[in-house]
Amino acid sequence: MNQLQSWLIRSSLTFLVLLLALTPRSSTLAMPPEFSSVFLDATFPIAGCDFPIEARLTATLKVFVHFDQNGDFKMLIERVLPKDSQSIYTNLETGASISSSHGSGIDKLVMEEDGTITFMVMGVFDILPVPGQGLVVQNVGRIVFDASTGEILFSAGQFTVHGPGSSVEGLCGALE
User: Fold this and answer.
1) Cβ–Cβ under 8 Å, residues 2 and 151
2) Residues near 111 by Cβ (< 8 Å), separated by ≥ 6?
């Protein structure tokens, strides 16, 4: 599991626990989803280059939490708003950076009947063309994880940095 996968799972589970702790569940009738808006600002390292790279992701998330008729958590859906999302990749040795503002998509955290939790990320995570070099980051598709183990259960799409079969060569070259 790479750093982004680990961070996404930990962040979503932490957010879920906080949201559930603050949510009153006094009614046994089916409850409408609860809505909130959350600003995400996270940094994490990108491994694979001969120099350290830091990724910073910022986005506004629309979050919907669904409960069953007993008031128990069923699923959390986050929608990334494309107008507010940005990824910045920085070479920490030279300060060189490149950025993208193309992220949008939907994340879904589901608790199954047996208690297992799956985490799905789908959409345009990042598209980053660099003049003279072409597309150096393209992370588009759908990935489903087992939230407790981080195991990838399903993957489809094109991933140059943050997914199965990814490579950071283009990103490293753009930040040298």
Assistant:
1) no
2) 73, 74, 75, 117
Query: Encoding tokens for residue 75?
Result: 């699923």
Helix (H) or strand (E) holding 80: strand 73-80
How do residues 73-117 score in pLDDT, each as one tens digit? 888 888 887 777 888 999 999 999 988 876 778 888 888 778 788
Nearest to 9 by CA among 42, 51, 55: 42
Q: Are 85 and 104 in contact (CB under 8 A)?
A: yes
> How far apart are the C-alpha atoms of 103 and 80, rounded to whole Å?
7
CB 121 within 8 A of CB 104: no
Our CA angle for 38, 39, 45, nearest 5°, is 125
**Interval 23-32: pLDDT, tens:** 444 444 567 8
52 in helix, strand or coil?
Answer: coil
